[in-house]
């Protein structure tokens, strides 16, 4: 990254921090009146992926299975200790999510659960005490199980109203504490892990594509209603959407490869095009027509989407993707990432098969800003790795420092390119349960948590080498990489 005397590339007030999700950290899965959520039905092991894609046969946890979300890292009871560590690093922001089922245990209760509301009051108060800005995701991969059983989750239009009630409840309660909001985490994940993204369960013979895009419409309408409510209840707040981002490269300059790469990107852009531009793009309408999909919409939907677009674009970036139209090349795929990708011969991969592409981060940020011309917020980026504690009790995670250093440098280059970026909250600043695999050994944090894949361990928190490195990055506003 270029250096300029006594001047950081990163703007003054840049929101450095980290990002967490309730279902991956809180634990206490039925404590304080909380209801069962979709992630509470996802065990470790072979069944996890089948459930993630909507092949689930029971809405009750099996006592013979291990469910990592039930205890997770017990942030519910450790949040003060953990926030103190984040404050020691100098965090300016912490992205968290509210569990819908902590506020409305069934998702559609007549009155909210006061114990759940109070927990997040206490959490936000603790953050603000340490001068850490809460950045709050309203729906991060958890739907109250009752809504799945009774309504089919986001298959049903009725969830729009339930979500709007939830949104208005939390906006009203936390209007003096939270100024940055996001509606649905990685909303495009609905297409790839439909149970995780939207609580969708499929029966034999159903048209899954039809169901997914109808559910997507319901989430997009719910998001627009939430934006409207947020602007009315908290006029000085900012509310954004959130995309699992990553540029798709064509494997060759064959125009067929280039067009296919564009189509793969559009699968994701579709959601943000609607949330940011306020209407269904032409390519989506053609896709629906070509695939005989009929999306049921109500008369006021078009106006609602047009008039209540988001203030900023939140996005995660872990890896770029590569695609081809050559069947032989398609056989050579990377493992690990939910988004399918052929192996890029120019790039290395992580232990979990995720492509490592710092330059792709800059490309992705430029692409999003060119497309939407709205501020961006990098709300997830990081490296999952199997960290080892040495004989002296030290965790030397130089590989993580190297990954983050390269990515932050490229983010700085994107800012120099003219991209407006609000902040950077790296994923999992403390070790958390992996959303995709349910593992603990896939660690992202600057802080090690003593817990293994089977749920064993003391939950003791230990600083890694990256802890002091990130502290220095924040203190220097990105200059000391």
From TrEMBL:
The active site is at residue 380. GO terms for biological process: carbohydrate catabolic process. Keywords: Glycosidase, Hydrolase. The keyword Ribonucleoprotein does not apply. It is an enzyme of class 3 (hydrolase). InterPro entries: GH (IPR017853), GH_1_N_CS (IPR033132), Glyco_hydro_1 (IPR001360), Glyco_hydro_1_AS (IPR018120). PROSITE patterns: GLYCOSYL_HYDROL_F1_1, GLYCOSYL_HYDROL_F1_2. GO terms for cellular component: cytosol. Gene3D superfamilies: Glycosidases. Belongs to the glycosyl hydrolase 1 family. This is 6-phospho-beta-glucosidase. It comes from Oceanobacillus profundus.
């Amino acid at each position: 990254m270029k250096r300029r005397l006594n001047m950081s590339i990163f703007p003054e007030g840049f929101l450095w921090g980290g990002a967490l999700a309730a279902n991956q950290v809180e634990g206490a899965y039925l404590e304080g009146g909380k209801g069962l959520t979709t992630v509470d039905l996802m065990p470790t092991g072979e069944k996890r992926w089948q459930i993630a894609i909507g092949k689930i046969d029971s809405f009750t946890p099996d006592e013979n299975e291990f469910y990592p979300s039930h205890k997770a890292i017990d942030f519910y009871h450790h949040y003060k200790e953990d926030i103190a560590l984040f404050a020691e690093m100098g965090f300016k922001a912490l992205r968290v999510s509210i569990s819908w089922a902590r506020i409305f245990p069934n998702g559609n209760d007549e009155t909210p659960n006061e114990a759940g509301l109070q927990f997040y009051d206490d959490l936000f108060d603790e953050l603000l005490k340490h001068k850490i800005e809460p950045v709050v995701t309203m729906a991060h991969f958890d739907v109250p199980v009752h809504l799945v059983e009774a309504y089919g989750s986001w298959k049903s239009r009725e969830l729009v109203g339930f979500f709007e009630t939830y949104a208005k409840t939390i906006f009203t309660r936390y209007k003096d504490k939270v100024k940055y909001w996001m509606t649905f985490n990685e909303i495009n994940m609905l297409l790839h892990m439909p149970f995780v993204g939207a609580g969708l369960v499929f029966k034999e013979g159903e048209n899954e594509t039809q169901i997914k895009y109808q559910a997507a419409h319901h989430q997009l309408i719910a998001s627009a209603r939430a934006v409207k409510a947020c602007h009315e209840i908290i006029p000085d707040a900012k509310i954004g959407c959130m995309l699992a981002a990553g540029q798709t490269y064509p494997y060759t300059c064959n125009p067929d490869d280039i067009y296919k790469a564009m189509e793969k990107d559009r699968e994701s852009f579709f959601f943000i095009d609607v949330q940011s531009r306020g209407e269904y793009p032409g390519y989506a309408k053609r896709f629906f027509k070509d695939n005989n999909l009929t999306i049921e919409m109500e008369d006021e939907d078009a106006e609602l989407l047009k008039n209540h677009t988001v203030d900023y674009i939140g996005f995660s970036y872990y890896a770029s993707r590569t695609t081809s139209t050559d069947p032989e090349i398609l056989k050579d795929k990377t493992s690990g990432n939910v988004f399918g990708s052929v192996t890029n011969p120019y790039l290395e991969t992580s232990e979990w098969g995720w492509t490592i592409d710092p330059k792709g981060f800059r490309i992705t940020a430029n692409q999003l800003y060119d497309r939407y011309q709205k501020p961006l917020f990098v709300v997830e980026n990081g490296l999952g790795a199997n960290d080892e504690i040495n004989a002296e009790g030290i965790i030397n995670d130089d590989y993580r420092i190297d990954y983050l250093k390269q990515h932050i440098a490229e983010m700085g280059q994107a800012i120099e390119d003219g991209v407006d970026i609000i902040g950077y909250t790296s994923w999992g600043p403390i070790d958390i349960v992996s959303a995709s695999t349910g593992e603990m050994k896939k660690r992202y944090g600057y802080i090690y948590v003593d817990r293994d894949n089977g749920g064993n361990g003391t939950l003791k928190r230990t600083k890694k080498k990256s802890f002091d490195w990130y502290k220095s990055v924040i203190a220097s506003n990105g200059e000391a990489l």
